[in-house]
Amino acid sequence: MENNSTQQFSTVIVPKTRLLDFHLKELVRYRDLVFLFVKRNFVSHYKQTVLGPAWAVIQPLLTTVVFTVVFGRLAGLAPGGVPSFLFFMSGNIAWGYFAGCLTSTANTFTGNAAIFGKVYFPRLVTPISTVLSQLIGFGIQFVMFLVFLVIYWIRGTVQPTLYALLLPLLLLQMAMLSLGVGVIISSLTTKYRDLVMLVGFGVQLWMYGTPVAYDIGIVPAKFLGLYMLNPMTPVINTFRLAFLGLGSFDLPHYLLSWAVTLAVLMIGIVLFNRVEKTFMDTV
Amino acid sequence: MDELAIKIEHVSKQYRLGAIGGGTLKGDLQSWWARKRGREDPNSKIGSRTDLKPGDKFLALDDVSFEVKKGEALGIIGHNGAGKSTLLKLLSRVTAPTSGTLSYNGRITSMLEVGTGFHQELTGRENVYMNGAILGMTKAEIDRKMDQIIDFAEMRQFIDTPVKRYSSGMYVKLAFSVAAHLDSEIMVMDEVLAVGDMAFQKKCLSKMRQAATQEGRTVLYVSHNMNTIRQLCSRVIVLDHGRVIFNGEVEKGIAVYMGGDTDMHSDVTILPYMRTIECKSPIKMTRFRTNREDCTFPFGSVLPFELYVKSDDAAAHECYIRAIIHSMNGDAISMCNTERAISIQPNGETAKRFRIDISQLVPGDYYLDISIFEVGALGAQERFDVIQNLYRFRIIETPGFNLDKPWYPAGWGYINNGVISEL
User: Fold this and answer.
1) Chain A residues closer than 8 Å to B1 by CB
2) Domain housing A137
């Protein structure tokens, strides 16, 4: 028995983990599960709907039309120089991806309590696969956007720039930011259900704090410093610069938004790690 | 020296009773503010310290330590609430211990509930991938095992049909089959054998025995069914109120679990913790009493008892009493109800005397469950209170019983059906 006490074990479960314990190796081992979740989310989302994935297109298209009429024509919030339809559509699909990721990752713990309560797998698998599933929807919407873009481009009313090559980076940033905010909320909702109420309209409010439905030009200069702290602002701006050639590239604020994103993601993962071990007792 | 598969050292798991926190941010901020100013927490419960109240701490596991060798089949037994499921939850990493360390080698397949992650819209095959991946297999591993899994579940025809079209039996068979084919070194099971038909249950049992004896895998098995524990396990651990009270030979452990004679009481005061099934109702049983001090009855007797029922309802209720007799293995043997409804006094205690015919029960020890229920206008039965294993009693042989030979319950059952009469 003396020898037994020195035996090495492959897994040791202790009450608390270190602050930054990412189990990256374990996540890699469960990569197949990530893809299966993505597939399941996609299949179950559109099963038994008549239009199927077409819904991914219809929703932003109609929102864009409404925005163009209400915010563009009536309120006159669209900038000159670019077609307002494309202006609102670009804002919509980029924001749509971010908001979709955020609302569904915010649901991670409460929505998966049944499965989390039965088996162990790295809990981060679920929010990561959610973010990837949303990417499929974004892909479909982006193709739609490209079709309109090409039409306007042939007409010569819009000029995409080489910043379009930044698209993967923009998507990555939106995914990381929404993942960060989403897991912070989902970690807190295990104890405080109040936050569930907040998510829906919180996202709505955030959208109005981001130049989605209007041009950044209308923001008074004295608020601009505060306004640019919103990490989504430079993302949307850069997205529009890339495809519509609108505005100019603002490197300092872009870097600042990355810094905020990374900080939020870090806090999110730390919180998530703390909660994931015992949330079953409180949820 | 035998290699260890699992080592559990001084593990405790604490739960707080009742709702945790305020549940809302406001409640927690209130408590925090009160603490800051040295006032009494407005959300804490007022009450005596002697009995457990919501908000009190409760140890589901209390300093549990044991070791499991590689290739061993360990049974974990204990009454409801003894901490068995908590232990398995800790091992399968569903939740973390409050203190102590659990270490193990290799992968653990937990079969706390089979079919986790099955999605109604996906086909059987897709669900095998899904479920397998949740349990920790890679796609390549599942590919290799797919044929074995399908054959074990006897489902080849239906494997490409969405599982929402499956019968519940098919569903469970497929799910069990996935779990049973994992290449994990340790299998953790919580009464999964209660699935499928008899033939499939037998198949599962032999599959698990094979896993332990031939494949050198370690099996942890939790059950209330002593027969499967006997068939499967080479050692048992008995848990009681979160502590290990026995660790060793199967038969001895079962005897400890059955409690020797220590739980034979002729007068039982019913305490809240004895309720394993919670019913929200104003009517509760408070006391059960028999006039037999030793709880022992000769074969062929009746069991007279007195039952006290307390009602907190202003309305009078007409209730039925039900008695279920269990063998020590946990198998239900017989059931009887009161012939007609009993009137329960509003806002007070009612004491009634009853009698059950136990004349056909063969010698041995039995448990009695008592429940009280009401029959609604449409014939639906609503349970008011259920106490399992309320009373333990013993039947002893009388001269001439079974031609003065011992009865053999494993083969003959528990009911002596009289004699075969010659016509």
Assistant:
1) 3-4
2) 51-275
Q: Do A36 and B130 touch (CB under 8 A)?
A: yes
Q: Which residue in B11, B103, B107 has the most chain A C-beta atoms within 10 A of its own C-beta, making it the best mutation to test that interface?
A: B103
The pLDDT assigned to B194 comes to: 57
Q: Which two tokens stand for residue B95?
A: 């939740």
Give the per-residue pLDDT at B228.
78
User: Could you tell me if A174 and A97 are in contact, meaning their C-beta atoms sit under 8 angstroms apart?
Assistant: yes
Q: Does the structure show a pLDDT above 60 at A277? A: yes
Q: Kindly identify which residue of chain A lies nearest to residue B97, measuring between CA atoms.
A: A15
Tokens representing B30 are 């209130």
Give the separation between CA B126 and CA A38, rounded to whole angstroms.
13
DSSP-derived secondary structure for B323-358: EEEEETTS-EEEEEE-SS-EEEPTTEEEEEEEEEE-
Residue B54 has pLDDT above 80, yes or no: no
Are B409 and B362 within 8 A, CB to CB? yes
Residue B418 region by backbone torsions, left for phi larger than 0, else alpha for psi between -120 and 50, else beta: left
Tokens of A141: 């919407």
B7, B101, B110 ranked by CB distance to A119: nearest: B110
Residue A9 located in a structural domain: no
ipTM of predicted assembly, 2 dp: 0.76
| Within-domain flag for A21 | no
* H or E segment and range at residue B287: strand B283-289
* Residue B50: band (very low, low, confident or very high) from pLDDT cuts 50, 70, 90: very low
B389 CA to chain A: closest CA distance, Å?
A: 28
Of the pLDDT bands very low, low, confident and very high (cuts 50, 70, 90), residue A4 is: very low
Going by their DSSP bridges, the two strands B235-240 and B243-248 should be labelled as antiparallel
Question: Any chain A CB within 8 A of the CB of B5?
Answer: no
Give the closest residue to B301 by CA, choosing from B406, B205, B398, B385: B398
Q: Which candidate, B58, B60, B64, B57, places its Cα nearest to that of B11?
A: B64
CATH T-level assignment (fold) for domain B4-22+52-258: Rossmann fold (3.40.50)
Chain centroid offset of residue A24 CA: 21
Greatest Cα-to-Cα distance within chain A, rounded to the nearest angstrom: 83
What lies within 8 Å, CB to CB, of A236 at 6+ separation is: A91, A94, A95, A210, A211, A212
Q: Selecting from 2.70.50.60, 3.40.50.300, 1.10.10.10, 3.40.50.1240, what CATH number does the domain B267-412 have?
A: 2.70.50.60
Site of tokens 């469960």: A30
Paired strand residues for B99:
B12
Contact A40 B139 (CB under 8 A): no
In whole angstroms, what is the distance from residue A159 CA to residue A151 CA? 11
Contacts of B100 in chain A (CB under 8 A): 15
Are residues A236 and A94 in contact, defined by beta-carbon separation less than 8 angstroms?
yes
B49-78 residues touching A, CB cutoff 8 A? 67
Domain ranges of chain B: 4-22+52-258, 267-412
Could you count the other beta carbons within 10 Å of the beta carbon of residue A197?
10
Q: Which residues of B314-352 are buried (b: 16+ CB within 10 A; e: fewer)?
A: eeebebbbbbbbbbbbeeebbeeeeeeebebeeeeebee
